[in-house]
Specification:
Length: 532
């Protein structure tokens, strides 16, 4: 059946290309057949149907009034997209809408883009089910951008396209490139990110062609230009964990940096060209991480590069993660303490911005652990940084039901116990407090970290605390399978061993509400008021 759909669409495309003279009723049936094929779930059928739709527009709709053309194409498909509840069935409609001819798109470009944007940006309710529609919407935006940029001939059209790119199109793509939706199929958001990168390249190329003819810079507000922000988003993807995303982002960035007319609006243009200019052999190997390390020295792009590198370095220990870790450690070692602290503060800022997003928080915390274990972050002695990291790590454990996140947070807290006071006392206190976590695995994890820290105490610390008793408690109590009462008692003893006050249990006081005498509800009050 799928093959027949493909064959029919190819046949109709051929009929339209041949400009066969047909009665209006037959043209209407062709249009209906194409619309029906656009609902097919096969992407090949959708592509053939879109091709036939474009041929239909150029062959049979070009001679009718423009208002009618818009009504039977753009308006029709915007209506179908709005009515169709099943996102899988409207992918073809979305692609067809973005593929409308230039003469149809120019009068209703804003409406078409708004419709595509509603399908491209995650709605937050059921992101996994909508991912195919989001991919189609980003493709539709790419088609639309190419069509408008290729047909922008008048000054008015160039100004209109410039405004559309700056105000709507590129901001929308900056949202879609941050799609990290995950379901049982894996990182399905990467499908959207992959299409978004091509769309950003096309939109910036269109912006460059317009800027070449209209030499004005819309980014004069003192804020970072949208071109710089878009390049930063691509740089982040250039250091991502998934190979195909990383290599595609690298190549798209190289192409954008070849657009000379954009140089005036992109920060660190010369430095970026020096980094991306070497031949593309780097894009096919793990050396890409090391090759792009120089970006960490460019302030406008440092945060994006660190976040991309952290998401790769904080992976599950595969070769990509190890390569990313090695590259980051090499960079901070070469840059000295200033680079180490800069990277650490950037990672802390990423944690603060993405609180509750485990897909980001977990790898970033793992990366910070690597800075402690491999780059000597604890030797920096930055108390403010350590306090900020402790606050983020402890905050992520509150009400958390993600075992992996809890384990990573405890590992970070354990690393902070090697700092000096007041960080040592605060982090050590929180490590002991975690011994009564609801999950046995986490209680055992906290006990193991506590044991490793206790046996590493120096002589001064051993004299200050009751280390022998603490070691006995940590090793003898069964933290994962023991009775709750025994675990709580042992934790209280551990607090005493280190001279700490255990956390006080906050008892919710019962508010005594005085009962008001209500004659309508109290029979006794009613009798009394009657005088009996």
């Amino acid at each position: 059946g799928t093959i027949i759909y493909e064959a029919v669409c190819c046949f109709l495309d051929g009929v339209c290309r041949a400009h066969v003279k047909l009665p209006e009723s037959v043209v209407s049936r062709i249009d209906h057949c194409i619309s029906f094929s656009l609902k097919h779930l096969s992407t090949l059928v959708q592509d053939y149907a879109v091709t036939a739709f474009k041929s239909l527009c150029s062959a049979y709709y070009a001679s009718i009034p423009i208002e009618t053309q818009i009504e039977v194409t753009a308006t029709k498909y915007m209506g179908l997209i709005g009515k169709e509840r099943n996102s899988l069935l409207c992918q073809g409609y979305i692609l067809a809408l973005g593929s409308c001819p230039a003469n149809i798109l120019w009068p209703c470009a804003k409406d078409v883009l708004d419709c595509l944007k509603t399908k491209a940006v995650p709605c937050g309710e059921d992101d996994g089910a909508e991912v195919e529609a989001r991919v189609a919407a980003v493709k539709g935006i790419t088609f639309m951008c190419r069509t408008l940029s290729d047909s922008a001939e008048t000054e008015e059209q160039r100004k209109s396209l410039t405004g559309l790119l700056y105000d709507k199109m590129i901001p929308c793509l900056l949202e879609t490139i941050n799609d990290y939706t995950i379901d049982n199929r894996g990182d399905i958001g990467s499908w959207v990110r992959h299409e978004s990168m091509e769309a950003i390249e096309v939109s910036l190329s269109a912006l460059g062609s317009v800027a070449g003819e209209d030499d004005r810079s819309p980014s004069t507000s003192g804020k970072r230009s949208i071109e710089t922000t878009a390049l930063g988003a691509l740089i982040k993807q250039s250091l991502e964990k998934i190979d195909r995303i990383r290599h595609a982002a690298y190549l798209h960035t190289r192409k954008i940096l070849s657009i000379k007319s954009m140089a005036k609006n992109v920060e660190c243009w010369t430095e970026l060209q020096e980094i991306y200019e070497p031949d593309a052999d780097h894009a096919g190997s793990g050396n890409l991480f090391e090759h792009l390390l120089e970006i960490l020295r460019l302030e406008p792009y440092r945060n994006c590069a660190i976040q991309g590198l952290a998401l790769s370095a904080g992976g599950l220990g595969d070769s990509v993660s190890q390569t990313a870790v090695g590259a980051m450690v090499k960079s901070v070692n070469e840059g000295g303490d200033s680079m180490l602290l800069t990277v650490a503060w950037e990672l802390q800022a990423i944690l603060a911005r993405n609180a509750g997003v485990s897909r980001v928080v977990i790898p970033v915390m793992r990366t910070i652990d690597f800075l402690f274990s491999k780059a000597g972050l604890i030797d920096s002695g930055d108390v403010k940084l350590f306090e900020a990291l402790l606050a983020e790590a402890w905050g992520s454990t509150r009400g958390c039901r993600d075992i992996v996140l809890l384990q990573v947070a405890l590992s970070l807290i354990a690393n902070l116990t090697y700092a000096k006071d007041p960080v040592f006392t605060a982090s050590f206190y929180k490590l002991i407090a975690s011994l009564v976590n609801r999950y046995p695995k986490i209680r055992r994890c906290a006990a193991e970290h506590l044991y490793m820290r206790i046996i590493s105490f120096e002589e001064e610390e051993e004299e200050k605390f009751d280390v022998d008793r603490a070691t006995e408690l940590v090793t003898e109590v069964s933290w994962d399978t023991g009775a709750a009462a025994a675990i709580k008692t042992a934790r209280l003893d551990l607090f005493a061993c280190f001279g700490m006050e255990p956390p006080k249990k906050i008892e919710t006081s019962k508010v005594q509400v005085e009962k008001k005498d209500n004659a309508m509800t109290s029979y006794a009050s009613l009798v009394a008021n009657a005088g009996y």
